[in-house]
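User: I'm curious whether this sequence folds into something compact or stays loose and floppy. Could you predict its structure so I can see for myself?
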Amino acid sequence: MQKKEIKTILPEFRENIFIDQKEYSKSLWKFFASGNFSIKKEVFMDFMFDEDFLMWGAEDIELGYRISKKYSVFLSKKCLAYNSSDKKMIDRNKFSSLIKSLIQLYDKYETEELKYYCFERFDNVPLSIRKNSELIEIKSKNEQKLVFNEGIFRSFFRIDDVYSKCDELVDIMDLLLSKKIPVNLQVVPNRIDKETVFYLKELKKKFPRLISFNMHGYSHMNHSGEKSSYKKYEFGTKRTYQEQNNDILDGLDIMRNLFGKEFNYVFTPPYHGYNDDTIKILEGKGFKMVSLFEGHNIKNERLHIFNMNLDIVKNYDTNEYFTIEEMNNLLEDTYNNKQYMGVLLHPNFFSKQGKKLLEKIIEFILSKKMRLSLIEYEIIDTCN
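Assistant: Here's the prediction. I'll summarize afterward.
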């Protein structure tokens, strides 16, 4: 019998539980996949599967959830299951079935932990599978329910070069948060001052679901020797592996100390410059995602990439902005021809024209009723 190639285990939402069971000791029912659990016959006969679950995706989790309320559930890292099928682990049809089945699971118990689990599963399905879909919570005086909508376009906002509470940063944040638009903040760890940290953390308290703290290099220095913004880099060929490693490690320590658990492991290299060493170091330090701009491509099974695709600046070397007419065309083109809209902003490049352009972008996004999200919830499809 010919041996099949064993492929790298794909990272997914339960990986953190696998790494640190103690922190998730009350959530081990999430591992109750029918392809790999062992249970005493008499216990199983007492509980059985709920045959009202007719669609794929949640009948085993529902069983594990019920059992966990009466018995202890244990996870053994030694009992691994391998899927040898060449078929995709999940496709569009399975995804649709999964979310509908999860909503049925939530409707049965209506607990906060199951509501969170539904969003957790949704947010960790690859973007190419769940594109233009949304899972939302609707609350009324008498009830709250989860609703699954397919065919929803997404939008994202990322602010780079965050290290000073300048007027431009405050203006951008005011514009976005006043419309309840989520934003990823790419913080330069070795340059951010105490006043800015305090300002951002206060905003996070006020808008906990709208702000994400990410890492933007270390000190945003140009080590390339080039003058053009499109050739500069902090991480690249003229820097040794050890130099890059030291900067990333020092920056990571600063981000952890400043923001604690609020820090998300998303990395944006300054000027979008990097090389193979950069990617290897980021993977080794536990980063889950790199966010760049359209045109970049990183092939790495464990480090995902999410590229922004819309900028208000036409040319950073000449400080030239798009016109309103040009932006209107860009917005229509992005909406009609791409899977999502990822808006890139810089406080250092936010003139009066930049503000007008941002207002135009926000107006367009809201008029199309796009789903507003943080970029860490979006990953490229690494499923085979």
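Summary: Residues 30 and 117 are 8 Å apart (CA to CA). DSSP finds twelve helices and 13 strands in the chain.
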